[in-house]
Amino acid sequence: MITLKGEHIYLRALEPEDLEFVYVVENDETVWEISNTQTPYSRYLIKQYLEQAHKDIYEVKQLRLVICYYDNEVLGLIDLFDFDFKNKRAGIGILVKDEKNRAKGYGKEALKLLINYSFTHLGLHQLYCNISEENQASIQLFSNQGFKNVGLKKDWNLVNGTFKNEYLFQLINN
């Protein structure tokens, strides 16, 4: 896996040392709505996941990269999921963990790097993302990178007993 370098951050593959970071992120109930998580993950399961993280995107249909600041501070995660080689598309998701690191351009830079990688190296034709109707920060982030809102999925996710709408955004590589 090549390292994807930006001006302020870089993206790298998951390492065994990321166990605690991934454990904290996956068990943070405040982000479960974003990831459709419903139960906590054990360190054991995350360790197993990290041991398999080296597998090729063509085999496992997903790619998770770590967003790092150049002092090696881990800022978040960015994913390609539902990788569909035949139809040349994948879903994309991003999380900058700590609020203090949000709205500083790190997510924007990470997203640009992964979009470029997806279209240039993976030969994808399109990327898509699913964003809660209430998540204005993500709507703005993806819209500013050229993603278009192509539909509203009514009552799509049940969150704390309430159904919430979700937008589908697409970016087509022309």
Structural class: alpha+beta
Please name the fourth-level CATH homologous superfamily. Gcn5-related N-acetyltransferase (GNAT)
The strand line-up of the biggest sheet is 1-2-3-4-5-6-8-7
Q: Which fold name is given in CATH as the topology?
A: Aminopeptidase
Give the beta-strand count.
Answer: 8
What's the helix-strand series?
EEHHHHEEEHEHEE
User: Multimeric state of these chains?
Assistant: single chain
- In round numbers, the mean pLDDT is 89
Q: How far apart, in Å, are the first and last alpha carbons?
A: 26 Å
Helix content: 25-40%
CATH class equals: Alpha Beta
Please tally the helical runs, counting DSSP H or I stretches of 4 or more residues.
6
Molecular shape: globular
Low-confidence stretches: none
**How many whole angstroms does the radius of gyration measure?**
16 Å
| Structural domain count | 1
CATH architecture: 3-Layer(aba) Sandwich
The biggest sheet, with number of strands, parallel, antiparallel or mixed sense and barrel status, is: 8 strands, mixed
Estimated share of beta-strand residues:
35-45%
